[in-house]
Specification:
This protein is an alpha/beta fold and about 350 residues long. It has helices at about 35-50, 60-70, 85-95, 110-120, 145-160, 175-185, 205-220, 235-245, 270-285, 305-310, 340-350; strands at about 10, 15, 25, 50-55, 75-80, 100, 125-130, 165-170, 195, 225-230, 255-260, 295-300, 315, 320-325, 330-335.
């Protein structure tokens, strides 16, 4: 797929836009003023593979806490600012790497000028973040048009203040609205786009809805950074985001596991084997060969040998809980279900 060309924006140690990898974002769900709890969650997010972390800054205590939080992490941090422009100034002064402003609730030109002046002096970018729920007095029939207009009007105001270090997002709860809004704005400017679907509901529903919306846009080359919003622990957001990017071939986070859904032919506990392998890969600190990108674990002889041959390495289980180990398309030896995890991990290192 051909990616939309955008200008490059740097957020701490991470650059987005241009030819840079699509970055994964999430948001802490702690009180930002609780430095220890917030740092603990940031570390969990970093271990999960999160590139950029956003913090809710809804009071001066949270803004002040940024200085201490920054001492405990190198992950780029974004301050989520609503209603009170002074919190944006305080967050910048305390070392935040990026500011998110909502055109729906910080609109005064003098206030914006003060924020821009401070951001410009510190060399940090601003995300113009439109949410469908905060677009003022809009009808359902014109929501997409109003979201795009809200973002572009805000961008023009900021450009008029001599500032172009920006990222844009237009998040809705509806898949069609969100996709259409991003498509429209992608044709009207070259700023990097932060993709997301907001208020997605329960975790499974949110993961599916986000995968559809973000998958459509990313497959069209639209998007430079993404956040999957779930009513769940933030690490789950990162996991889904990684799956989306890997499924589209946009990033590689390690070996991709291919496994069958199982049926009455399966003579092993395949679900447990796959789960154990995933746990070992994510928590074992294994140093794997860069040549192993696809691992097949299949439960029977119907599709098993074919999938195992097409993977870098794989096991196709047969009757009685034994399987055939494949490497680069060739069957090499028999392996038992009890020893298959160790076998796969050993072969992934070579």
């Amino acid at each position: 797929m051909k990616r939309r060309k955008t200008r490059v924006v740097r957020i701490g140690r991470v650059s987005i836009g241009g030819d840079n990898p699509i970055a994964i974002q999430s948001m802490t769900k702690t009180r930002t003023s609780d430095v220890r709890a917030t740092l603990d969650q940031i570390r969990c997010l970093e271990e999960a593979g999160c590139d950029i972390v956003r913090l809710a800054v809804n009071d001066i205590q949270s803004a002040a806490a940024i200085k201490e939080i920054k001492k405990g992490t190198k992950v780029p941090l974004v301050a989520d600012i609503h209603f009170d422009w002074r919190l944006a100034i305080a967050a910048i002064e305390n070392g935040i790497d990026k500011i998110r402003l909502n055109p729906g609730n910080i609109r005064d030109r003098k206030e914006l000028k003060a924020i821009i002046s401070c951001a410009k002096a510190r060399g940090i970018p601003i995300r113009v973040g439109v949410n469908s729920g905060s677009v003022k007095k809009t009808a359902r029939s014109t929501l997409v048009k109003d979201m795009v207009k809200s973002a572009l009007d805000y961008v023009k105001t900021i450009e008029g203040l001599g500032f172009k270090n920006m990222v844009i997002s237009l998040k809705g709860a509806d898949i069609s609205d969100t996709v259409e809004a991003y498509r429209k704005i992608s044709s009207l400017c070259n700023y990097p786009l932060h993709l997301g679907l907001t208020a997605t509901g329960l975790p499974a529903q949110g993961a599916i809805s986000s995968s559809i919306a973000l998958g459509i846009l990313l497959s069209e080359g639209i998007g430079d950074t993404i956040r999957v919003s779930l009513t769940a622990q933030p690490q789950e957001e990162v996991k889904v985001a990684k799956y989306i990017l890997e499924s589209l071939g946009l990033r590689n986070f390690g070996p991709r596991i291919i496994s069958c859904p199982t049926c009455g032919r399966c003579a092993v506990d395949l679900a447990k084997i796959v789960k154990d392998l995933e746990h070992s890969l994510s928590n074992g600190g294994h140093r794997l060969s860069k040549h192993t990108t696809k691992v097949a674990i299949m439960g029977c002889a119907v599709n098993g040998p074919g999938e195992a041959r097409q993977a870098d390495i794989g096991i196709a289980f047969e009757k009685m809980g034994n399987g055939v180990f494949f490497k680069k398309g060739k069957p090499l030896y028999k392996v038992s279900a009890a020893n298959c995890i160790n076998t796969l991990l050993k072969e992934m290192k070579e």
